[in-house]
Amino acid sequence: MFYKKLFRQCPYGSIPYIIQSGDTLFALAVRFNTTVNAILALNPGIIPERLFIGQTLCIPQPTCPSGTEIYVIKGGDTIALLAKRFNTTVSAILDVNPGIVPERLFIGQEICIPRQIQEPSCPIGTAPYTIRSGDTLAKIAGRFNTSVEAILFANPGIIPERLSVGQIICVAQEKPLLPACPTSNYYVITKGDTLASIAFTFDVGLQELLNANPGINPRNLYIGQVVCIPAKPSPVGITVSIPAKTLTLYRQGSFVKAYTVATGKPNTPTPTGTFTIVNKQIDPGGPFGTRWMGLSEPHYGIHGTNNPASIGQSASNGCIRMYNCDVNELFNDVAVGTVVRIF
To answer: Which one of 58, 64, 112, 303 is the catalytic residue?
Structure first.
């Protein structure tokens, strides 16, 4: 049977599409990142089971939420590769593309990708949070046990009614609940951690670690959770060069990483010699930043800062001062008893 092509002018916000062999409304909805109901609303009287080749339909023009942009799938694309390419996450892409089937991407399919947004420098006591579809400040405040006012204070200039998917804001962190730990030898869980990997880092047995943390659920660790590390000889060592303003971490004698630090001012010099770390503290706040590792020399330690511009200079009252991101990392690599040589 011959069917005449039904050319038509589509309303604003939609585009004409000519039916091809194999097309269904569901397939079109997936291809154009819309829904079957949205297509039916634009095409009153259409019979989904009787589409024919050459028939012209109006398809909602792909629109992406604020803070995202349209991307056309190419050969070899996967959601994971796109997340890496555009510096976002698989979850963020799925949030702005409801109904997308990651295993069934096809060339020419249009999806929304969160735009790259520079992560803000968050004040001490807050952490970056990426806005998801449906988020409001009230919902975020409830989720993180804080208030809308506290979020607004940490994000001057933010417009609550104009949050966009992928936007990064600063949200107050709950003070971690510290387990009983006689030596103050704490570790803060980060992404990808397992009790087995932590035990390996500190050269302790898995059962020893479990015994030091009664009630811990190895299958339900969460980022920011604090665990207690049993006292053992530390497999790592630290050297600090005052002239070079560097702190170097070694593991079993092998170089691991070097950090730029601030050391003491001429009138409040950093002590030289060999010391040990005697205690560890989380979120001491103020000039000590996010972490503190006290030395066997009383009143001196390695810590974070609320003045990142001072790093690399002779600017402290004798302590070793680090960027907060660096001291957070170092904190999880060293144990109480670690030897620190300063020269």
So the answer is: 303
